[in-house]
Design brief:
Layout lengths: L1 E4 L2 E7 L5 H4 L3 E5 L5 H25 L5 H14 L9 H4 L28 H10 L6 H18 L9 H13 L13 H11 L6 H20 L26 H9 L9 H12 L5 H5 L6 E4 L2 E6 L16 E4 L2 H6 L4 H4 L19 H13 L10 H11 L7 H8 L8 H7 L4 H8 L15
Antiparallel strand pairs: 1-2, 2-3, 4-5, 5-6
Length: 457
């Protein structure tokens, strides 16, 4: 019986089919003039009783000779339900009985309808109670704006009165699936597409602390709305921000690498040779999956006499490295040269360096490979801590345990990490690291001969 329009509940009841012609209507629709559900149910119950009595009267009148004239009184009573001043309790309604004898309708002047109240939208609540508030600090305004913008991107604008626990929970779950780098780089992807890319590439996600901060900003806004009786409850309070047991990714062991190398490849969406090649490049460079899959032929160049991968933005497709530090140069490891990687520039068709990869609807090249790798590692029994991203962990661990002549800033530069400390000397030095030093660093990556045996192009 209850329907919501904007912020107000309405009573709706279907007229019995046998009475529709006689009463000249198919349904009853009455504003209950309240936005509170419990009050609306009380008023709807009273209207249900009144309409039931009128329907019974109409049924009994159909069998009488002067049915048409008598039914006119029932029609008027049904129309008058629209202007009934509904009380808030059943006790008050006992003084307003429905009369059995219907008087002839009197000609009455039509009263002007009151304009419908415009529901308070989330965007409007943000502006009114936060952005325009003289009491809110700059930090509060900025953080609340960010939280609301994320909600609007995910679900669109909506009246605050209908945003409840279901939407709050869906927003919390979405936040936990978004990349930790969200907002730190330009992106044309929707939030759902960002979450999908994060899953496929095994990227780190927002922490419980970050999710809590967004939710608490919305909770603070809702506290104001609740105090002003613009909402009935605060759906943003009381949530748990421990997102289960967090899986800590780690490096590959020698045994796990051997298991991967010996595993059969069953994917039909990505050629086995492409999978083996991408795996080999990741293991001997520490590059991310997205960086490898988006390499173009012109990104393989000789710099200072040393073959190098150039990881840089591609404006024509909108792809860019994860961070500013991600734009970098990575010398090609001697093992990759032995495997024939340099030949790809001449033998691969199309603009990309690696063959056999498609671009997904979300604009991600190599998404199918990421999914296929996840299925493979599950099939061969690798633990959850091992993902494709584990190759970066392996390379980082090897280099930091290698010869002392390899400096920390060289490793950071090679992997596309920001400098571990931000002194003026470090910042200046990072811009001047020679290609020879980077090659010395990359050549420190070493695996057992059995790990990538017979991996030739």
């Amino acid at each position: 019986m209850l329907r919501v329009r904007g912020t107000t509940y309405h009573f709706r009841r279907i007229v019995p089919p046998a009475l529709r012609t006689a009463l000249n209507r198919r349904e009853i629709w009455v504003s209950l003039k309240t936005g509170y559900q419990n009050e609306a149910r009380k008023r709807a119950s009273l209207l249900h009783a009144k309409t039931t009595e009128l329907f019974m009267q109409a049924h009994s009148m159909l069998a009488e000779p002067d049915a048409l004239s008598r039914l006119e009184g029932v029609r008027v009573s049904l129309r008058d339900l629209q202007s009934v001043n509904l009380p808030s309790s059943a006790q008050e309604t006992e003084a307003v009985p429905v009369s059995a004898a219907m008087p002839k309708p009197r000609t009455m002047k039509k009263t002007a309808k009151a304009p419908k109240a415009t529901p308070l939208m989330l965007s409007g609540a943000l502006k009114r109670f936060v952005l325009d508030s003289p009491h809110a600090s700059t930090d509060t305004k900025k953080a609340t704006q960010r939280a609301v913008d994320l909600f609007l991107q995910a679900f669109g604008d909506a009246p605050v009165s209908i945003i409840g626990g279901e939407k709050a929970g869906a927003f919390r779950d979405l936040l936990f699936s978004l990349p930790a780098s969200l907002g730190k780089r330009k992106s044309s992807l929707t939030l759902e597409e960002e979450a999908q890319r994060t899953r496929e590439e095994g990227l780190p996600t927002l922490t419980g602390k970050s999710v809590k901060n967004h939710m608490m900003r919305l909770s603070a806004l809702w506290n104001q709305l609740h105090q002003r009786e613009l909402v009935t409850r605060n759906p943003w309070a009381g949530w748990n921000f421990e997102n289960g047991q967090k899986t800590v990714r780690r490096s590959w062991t020698t045994k796990e690498l051997a298991l991967l190398a010996s595993a059969s490849w069953h994917s039909t969406s990505v050629p086995e040779q492409t999978f083996r090649l991408v795996t080999l490049i990741a293991a001997y460079s520490g590059m991310r999956l997205g960086e490898i899959c988006t390499l173009r032929k012109e990104d393989l160049q000789t710099v200072d006499g040393i073959p190098c991968f150039l990881i840089r933005p591609h404006p024509e497709t909108g792809w860019a490295p994860k961070t500013d530090a991600g734009t970098r140069m990575v010398p090609v490891h001697s093992k990759l040269i032995e495997a024939g990687v340099l030949m790809l520039k001449e033998t691969t068709d199309g603009p990309y360096l690696l063959p056999g990869l498609e671009t997904s609807k979300q604009g991600v090249r190599g998404a199918a490979l990421g999914r296929a790798f996840s299925l493979l590692k599950t099939r061969i029994g690798l633990p959850a801590e091992i993902t494709f991203h584990s190759f970066r962990h392996t390379v980082s661990t090897q280099l930091r345990n290698a010869d002392a002549n390899i400096r920390e800033v060289w490793i950071d530069r090679l992997l596309g990490h920001g400098a571990t400390h931000k002194s003026q000397g470090t910042t200046t030095y990072l811009t001047g690291i020679s290609t020879a030093n980077l090659r010395q660093t990359i050549e420190a990556i070493c695996y057992p001969e059995t790990a990538f045996a017979n991996m030739m192009i």
